[in-house]
Amino acid sequence: MENRRIADLVSEFVPLNRRRTHGNPPLSVLELERWSELRDQIAYEFGHAPPIGRMRQPRHLRVPTHLKVRYGGEAEHSATIENLSEGGLFVRCSEPLAPDIPLRLELELEGEPPLQLDAVVVHSRELDNLDGPAGFGVSFQKIEAEDYAVLTRLIERALSRAAQE
Containing domain of residue 138, as a range? Predict the structure, then answer.
């Protein structure tokens, strides 16, 4: 029953989110309010409650995923992405990078060339705790339109998979 509820939320959210991201046609005020409600409900179902002291969820829905990512210059690293959104992602790893470090990410995609994105580390967590696993969160920087389209398709696929679990 719970999976059906999440699937129903996702099926209503995805078309609204596509229109919100592409603006064709733009969402009305009522549709934007509904998009926000759906985003918050789905986030709650995925276990992403707003942090204490924060009244609302982040602007972008964080979708659980297990994609692989490579990052780093000379000392290249490979890790698993814990969650992904239109604005950034969280990399699960035992040696998180410090905030404010710019980096180039390479997301490994099935049957497609890797998606390369510029990002900056916005927070890190050295140890697993009640807030989540050890790792670091990044914010994407200047995404090209073609890469943004791939990213939104990737998020939709991850969202659909998570709704079926």
Answer: 63-143
